[in-house]
Amino acid sequence: MIATTNPATVLRHSLWPALFALCLSYVVWFFPRYIVGLGYGNDNLISSNPAAGAFDWLMLAALAVTLAMGVRTADVTAGEGDLRSRFDRLSLFLGRCTMLLIVALVSVMFYEVVLRYVFERPTLWANEMSLWMAGFIFLLSGLYAMQQRSHIRIFLLYDAMPRWLQRICDVISTSLIVVFAFAMVWGGYTEAAQKLMRWETFGTAFDPPIPATLKPMILLIICIVAVQAVVNLIVDWSRGPEHHGIVDETEVEDMIQTARAQHEQGRHD
Fold this sequence. Notes:
Blueprint: H1 7-29, H2 31-37, H3 43-48, H4 54-73, H5 87-117, H6 126-147, H7 155-158, H8 163-197, H9 210-235, H10 249-268
């Protein structure tokens, strides 16, 4: 495992996610230019947005490069599970981006609170920006939880099963995830595509494109989560029986040692 206390290590794990987030922010904000540049824009988009220029395409290429480099260099830190497949690196990298989004979200909220209650000059954009980023955080954190096998599971019956029965349960749960993803894409693709191509906005003073971005993002992340679930099933298939202790023995031992130390200190006092 890699410790995160070293500043160089922290920088290495944050550099590519930060660059990817910056490139993605630019591409998302100016995405109507790409729509117009590809010839798919409606009259409203064409009249209000120029076609994508050289710098716009350069930022799109930078987005692809930072994604590739970020996935390639992604690695676990202390407290995270092992990387058991190449696909895990994608989920782990997106998890790193999610962590940076949380920092950005807290910063925006703090900025708004200071302006609103200290200077009495609230912004017109902080609330919608917080909702926008929170939507991305909610979606991407689910992918990270699936990769780490940290999603909510009931182990009381699962741990009592033999390994062959555990595998059957894993197949059933993974199949349900895949079916759910297929149903969501089947039922929501047309609406998501329409919202994206007409660049539907939120209808406020700031007017961010929350519907245009989050609706397609929901379908995309659901598909990636389904793929991650299938990958988990494959790579975990040959592993031994899983048992999840309800009580952390190390934590119990630490509590005992602490209680003894306090007792001895009380006797000396």
